[in-house]
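Key result, reporting period 2: structure in, sequence out.
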């Protein structure tokens, strides 16, 4: 399973990239706003920090506008992945862009039928938003299961990128279902490393090691 970080904070990205466990980055207009940086400049910087795909989202709603913006964004770096919304114009743009060899992440997916459309449009990634799904009384993980089943039924190559992840349990469930990618806020990635018994264990070992009076 690939790990992407869902942020436009370059300090966080740089720190997490140093672990060697980071496979890519996703951003969206809200995250760019939160970072308070120039979109083009911050996207370029992120693309230099990681080798994997960096999703940068278009804001136009019509096909021509999306294609125009995608043209600007894909010139930033080879690892830019154009993010388009799951609309008719978004999927039309997806089909055209992936046909030209550009990576596309179809975002704001909230149903298995929408995911089926994204796969038919040749999306590189589809982003079902599990957290927002849960927040609205739907079962986010059931959506991931349904998409996995449908994609496997037809051997679609579109990767299931679980987005809007809120906590480590979402990551665990996504991995059990066989999602291809989890994009997580930095705090969730950091949370994956933690276990109270690991910390307790280290404490105990270090206390006993000190008693040996030895050093390595
Ligand atoms: O990048 C898209 C997605 O991960 C947004 O998450 O927490 O705003 O629902 P959230």
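The corresponding designed sequence is given below.
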């Amino acid at each position: 399973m690939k790990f992407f970080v869902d942020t436009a904070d370059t300090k966080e990205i740089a720190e997490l990239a140093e672990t060697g466990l980071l496979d890519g980055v996703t951003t969206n207009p809200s995250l760019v706003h939160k970072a308070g940086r120039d979109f083009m400049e911050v996207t370029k910087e992120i693309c230099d920090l990681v080798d994997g795909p960096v999703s940068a989202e278009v804001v136009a709603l019509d096909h021509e506008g999306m294609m125009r913006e995608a043209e600007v964004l894909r010139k930033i770096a080879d690892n830019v992945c154009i993010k388009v919304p799951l609309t008719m114009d978004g999927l039309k743009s997806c089909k055209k862009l992936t046909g030209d060899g550009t990576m596309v992440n179809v975002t704001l997916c909230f149903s298995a039928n929408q995911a089926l459309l994204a796969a038919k449009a040749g999306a590189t990634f589809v982003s079902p938003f599990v957290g927002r799904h849960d927040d609205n009384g739907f079962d986010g993980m059931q959506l991931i299961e349904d998409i996995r089943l449908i994609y496997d039924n037809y051997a679609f190559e579109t990767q299931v990128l679980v987005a809007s992840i809120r906590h480590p349990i979402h990551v665990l469930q996504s991995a059990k279902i066989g999602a291809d990618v989890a994009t997580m806020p930095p705090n969730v990635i950091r949370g994956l490393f933690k276990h109270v018994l690991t910390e307790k264990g280290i404490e105990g070992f270090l206390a006993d090691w000190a008693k040996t009076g030895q050093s390595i």
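The radius of gyration is 19 Å. Residues 65 and 133 are 28 Å apart (CA to CA). This case is discussed further under Risks and Mitigation.
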